[in-house]
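Can't attach files on this board, so I'm pasting raw text. These are the components:
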Amino acid sequence: MRNLKLTIQYDGSRYCGWQKQPDFSGIQGTIEYAIYEITREKIKIEASGRTDAGVHALGQVANFKTNSTIPASRIPDALNAKLPKDISIIDCQEVSEDFHSRYSAKGKVYRYLIYNRPYRSPLYKNISYHVKYELDLERMKRESKSLLGTHDFKGFRKDGSSVRGTMRTIHDITIEENDGLIVLEVYGNGFLYNMVRIIVGTLVDMGRGKIDKSMEEIIASKDKYEAGHTAPAHGLFLKKVHY
Amino acid sequence: MRNLKLTIQYDGSRYCGWQKQPDFSGIQGTIEYAIYEITREKIKIEASGRTDAGVHALGQVANFKTNSTIPASRIPDALNAKLPKDISIIDCQEVSEDFHSRYSAKGKVYRYLIYNRPYRSPLYKNISYHVKYELDLERMKRESKSLLGTHDFKGFRKDGSSVRGTMRTIHDITIEENDGLIVLEVYGNGFLYNMVRIIVGTLVDMGRGKIDKSMEEIIASKDKYEAGHTAPAHGLFLKKVHY
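---
Top answer:
Structure tokens for the assembled complex are below.
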């Protein structure tokens, strides 16, 4: 069987998330049905990771095994013709049999958008977190650098989520502002559940002056109650998966 | 009577444009009704200029005369509470009686977004022009510089549109690309009907190699048939009005 790797963009606004739910197909099920329409195969696709309701993707990756002989280069147009406009296949490559979009992933880049102006924006409403308060961007940039490197991010995950380990490595983090739109990008070897959204919420709380502690102290505390709030899902984008 | 100047953002996707139409209220009518709801006055607002169906605004300006005593600083929140989410008042200032959003305008900045990737983008679908062909961005940047200065832009307006004169001055034009998103911004003392969209269409046709003539030659021809196509409305944003 061939193993095909898809790169996918989606606007997550309308979806309950990546994963299939009892009553909703989710993004996964929507793509699986489009694959069925072009191949007549009932296959299961595996993503690099699930995304929550409202979260977007600029470069989600998923793979599936198929007997279809459609050339990989023709798959994006074929699937896009069947998919709703808020999902788009932007690349398809044939990969080796042992490639697995989740287990083969070496790192991920997330982007988070904050719209920092007093009044709401009609143009950014579904793709950014509206923060109406003034933010000390320099403090946010400075404190974000303490996230770099390998740390125990136990305090930066959703309460009750369980994973084997909570050590993660952040390779890079950047924060840029243009015309009221703050773009945060973070590249790491992996992220705990809600970790990016808690990092953003913590930085926003620092920028507003609601948190006096340093990021270094908060990481060291390993305590979710020391970190800031969880920024909303609709500002988050899975930008790229590294293999 | 007080003269109030509003700065307005909108996502034009749902609207037939700024202007009231027989069966539709347009953006103008929607805002006029919101003003009625907070002041009980049936007023008419005047914009710096109309925008077509699908065109967006980051900084449209409109003014209206009122007997209301609501402080200007409280108008944005009061109106935003009545307006649909795709329109937002981002500023309100009390201005002198003779201020007129259209006649007092000294210049405008438009932004145009082109999404230049082979496959459609779910995230930029309503706010950018999808060009799937490879574009020679360097040629586009080079040729765009010939637009600077004062020229007769007769070839860059919609057929049949009538205005007194077709001389316009372009003060600045920039083209930047990031991750497949091309951002064009143009600042001029005024623009003919569809002028920005024809400039963009001409530059795209140059970038694709469909037009061999230089921008200088096309301007000199004063002939719409020498210029390129009219880029679609939904990539266009009225960014700022200068007074």
